[in-house]
């Protein structure tokens, strides 16, 4: 009996398993519900309100049906039969669109139709577009103008104003004859785009071609004319601005070549005001720049020009074919050949407290062609020869502090010229003098001379030749570039091999001090007129930079320039004029405001300041 019950249970389980498998097979073979668009074919052209009909593959209860265009949901439709979705194309661009129907069945499962493409073309229904004809502006407003619409069922114009991609609101215009719009808040320096859209009463619209204004340009750059110097004043002028939107001029003044810390020297809203005069004191250097501003707050600036009340500059140039003495204003203007000679000239020097110039000129004499000493006025007149039949000059002449005497040396000895009566006396037969200088009281000369191949001496002598003394033997090489300085001390450059130093000592040779310990190479270039500051070149043999130092050796400023042997300090010790290479430059002693004064294809050099 037990066996029969067990058999019965197994039979019942087998039947259940078979029935379950049968249900699974049936579910897999069952057709899923679908939806199909029946009203239109793929690629069909449509317009206006498009009624899209569709049919379900099965008689189902659906929860929701939707229209999707280009993969995006558009709207929800009524689920009652027949299934029709009304799609409005009036506001769409004429273009192909992908149409898909989505529905949810009673189990909340979504289904999509196969997509079709419908091509929207409403051109026959839309009003003709109108294009923007012009965009103009004045100080009052900016106006866009378009052609009048010919739509018989015209409704209104929509005006779109774009700046940098952003649209600005303009109210719609409902009069078909109103074909202009003016805005008062605008910037003509950027593109203001305008577009007009025409709407008709049925809801169709058309968009015309857009147009922008011509971008307002800054004023014409003003031309700053050359600045002219008068008696203690300068006259600045510039070309008149002739544009109708001129607003004002501003003239800036600065002590910097880059117009740093500039101040307003002049302002005018009168376009005819194109000159300005300003007083200028002695030894001033000013930079000027004029700016013109228009109604739209656009502006243009002139180039920067400068003027100077510093003394004029004398220099040597070959620009006329041979080396002559020239002069120019300290701003580089008014270059004049002072000597206009057919003989080579060199080494101009300025007389203290006077405007005369001392210089050398190659002259034919009893000893052949030799450098002779000449003197002339600042304007090149009254050229007088002060030395006659000199032999080879080893040193440059020196001018006494009062400007009344000139000392020079040649192979015949040491000589003194009286400037007033132009007489010359030989005070010593000392030969081979390299450099010499007057004491500050003008009563004594100091000189350096080569004694042998490995030694030099530094000596002093009175102007009448009395009391000659050797105050220092310099062994191993030579001493040159010697100067008397304040405190009745003597400064000179000592060179030996690859090393050079600058020393200071008392006038009797005692208390020798090395002023330059930092670098192995130190060249004494020049000394200020007041004998308080030195121009030196210091560094290493391949890299020497120009520095200004005090008499105690303390560096005041490093100019970071190369001046070679042609640097000259102004009398107020604020500027240096120098040449390198072949042109003349001006720079502040702090290294600022570097200006190139000459730019010639020939050679300019040896610049000096005149004295006031």
Describe the structure.
The chain is mainly beta. Among the domains are: 35-120, Immunoglobulins (Immunoglobulin-like), CATH 2.60.40.10; 132-212, Immunoglobulin-like (Sandwich); 228-308, Immunoglobulin-like, CATH 2.60.40.10; 432-514. The chain contains one helix and 53 strands. Strands 2, 4, 5, 7, 8 and 9 form a six-stranded mixed beta sheet that branches. The model is unreliable at 1-27 (pLDDT under 50).
What's the total number of strands?
Answer: 53
Task: Indicate the percent of residues in helices.
Answer: under 10%
Q: Mind telling me the CATH superfamily name of the domain at 35-120?
A: Immunoglobulins
* Biggest sheet statistics: 6 strands, mixed
In brief, what are we looking at here?
By secondary structure, this protein is mostly beta strands.
Sequence-ordered SSE layout with sheet pairings:
Elements: H1 2-29, E1 35-37, E2 44-46, E3 49-56, E4 62-69, E5 72-77, E6 83-88, E7 96-105, E8 110-112, E9 116-120, E10 132-137, E11 142-146, E12 154-163, E13 166-168, E14 180-183, E15 193-200, E16 205-207, E17 211-212, E18 228-229, E19 233-237, E20 246-254, E21 263-268, E22 275-279, E23 285-294, E24 299-301, E25 305-308, E26 313-317, E27 324-328, E28 336-337, E29 345-350, E30 357-365, E31 368-376, E32 384-385, E33 398-399, E34 405-410, E35 413-418, E36 423-428, E37 433-438, E38 444-452, E39 455-462, E40 469-475, E41 478-485, E42 489-496, E43 499-506, E44 513-514, E45 521-527, E46 533-540, E47 543-550, E48 555-558, E49 568-569, E50 575-579, E51 584-588, E52 595-596, E53 604-609
Parallel strand pairs: 2-9
Antiparallel strand pairs: 1-3, 3-6, 4-5, 4-7, 7-8, 7-9, 10-11, 11-14, 12-13, 12-15, 15-16, 15-17, 18-19, 19-22, 20-21, 20-23, 23-24, 23-25, 26-27, 26-53, 27-28, 29-30, 30-31, 31-32, 33-34, 34-35, 35-36, 37-38, 38-39, 39-40, 41-42, 42-43, 43-44, 45-46, 46-47, 47-48, 49-50, 50-51, 51-52
